[in-house]
Amino acid sequence: MTTRRDFLKGGAAGAAGIFFCGCGLLHGARAQQPSPQKLPVTVNGKRVKTIDVHAHCNFHEAGALLGEQGPRIQTGTNVGAQDTFIDLKQRLAAMDSQAVDMEILSINTFWYDRERDLAAQIVKLQNEKLAEFCAVHSDRFAAFASLTLQAPDLAVEELEIAVRKQGLKGASIGSSLNGVDFSDPKFHPVWAKAEELGAPLFIHPRGIAELGKRLSGNGWLDNAIGYPLDTTIALSHLIFEGTLDRFPGLKVIAAHGGGYLPSYAERSDHACMVGPKGCNADIKLKKRPSEYLKQIYFDTVVFTPEALRHLAAQVGTSQIMLGSDSPFPWELNPVGHIFASTSLSDDEKADILGRTAAKLFNIA
Known about the structure:
Blueprint: H1 4-12, E1 19-20, E2 26-27, E3 41-43, E4 46-48, E5 51-56, H2 60-64, H3 70-75, H4 88-97, E6 102-106, H5 116-136, E7 141-143, H6 152-164, E8 171-173, E9 176-177, E10 180-181, H7 188-197, E11 201-203, H8 221-224, H9 226-240, H10 243-246, E12 252-254, H11 265-274, E13 296-299, H12 305-315, E14 320-321, H13 334-339, H14 346-360
Parallel strand pairs: 5-6, 6-7, 8-11, 11-12, 12-13, 13-14
Antiparallel strand pairs: 1-2, 3-4, 9-10
C-alpha cells in the first residue's frame, strides 16, 4: 500500500516532484504549485494563526471494535490513508511544511451502517480519544466529535457531552445516513441541539452507492465526481426541505468547497418556476435557494486561485475557511494557494487563513 509518506518521498513535495496519474498522464505537479509559506505566517506584517478545518484522523482502537477488517473499513486504501493514524512527529512535520498552525481533526463516518450499540461504542471511544489528544496538544489540534446519527437520541446526548464536557468543537457528519437525507425530521433534534450549543457541523461526503455502476471505470470517479455530487445533494436537501429555515442559527461547514452547488447555484433558483410539479408548495422558503449559501461555511479544497475567486464571489469571503484534506495529498500547499489568489485583499486572506475559524470555534 502506498502511504502519504511514500508519496511525498516520491517527489510530489520535492523540488522537482512529479505525479503520475492513473490516466496515463504525466503532470509537473510541483511546477503548478504556488510558492510555499513558512510558519509563522504573516499577512501585511501581521501574524495570522492558520487553522485547517479539514484534516482527518483515526484511532486503531476504534477499528478493533470492527474486527479484522476494521482498519480497512476505517480508512480504505488510498494514498495517505495509513497516515490518518497519527504519528505525532510526522503529522507536525507535515503541518509545519504546509504552514498550518492548527488542524481541526475529523473522522470520516465509517460506523453509520452498524447497529446502535456497536456504533455508540465506536463514537464514545473516538470522542474520548479526540478529547484526550487535543487536550494534550491544544496548541496544534482541536477536533469535531463523532455522532451515532442512526440513533438521533444518542447523537443529541453525544453532542452535548462532546461540546460541554470534552471541549470538542462541534461534530463531523456524513452527507446522508443509509439513504436517508439529513433534512428528514427524525434528525431535527440533533440540529436543534447543535443550534442551541452553537456547535458547527462539518459535512463530509460518503459517496453515492446507487451510482456505483455509473461511476466505475478509470479516473476514480466515485470520489472525483461522486463526493462533490454527494455534498451538493446534501446541501440542496437542507435548503429545499426548509431545514435551514427551521434552524437559522445552525452552523454548517461543507467540505471540498461545497461540491458543485456554488458553481451553479442560480439554477436552483429557477427549478420550482420551471418544474413546479417537482416542488412541494407547502414548503415556502424564506429566500432564494442560492442565498442560503451565504449562511453556510466552505473549505478551500478547490485547488486553484480561480476556483477560490469564484467561490468567494458566490458565497462571500466571510464564509470560507482554510482546508487541506490532510493527510490525503489533495492539497499539499493550502496556505500558498490563499496567498496566490490575487482577487483577495489582505484582510480577506487573513480571515480565510484563520481568523474566521478562530471566531467560529472560539480559538484564542
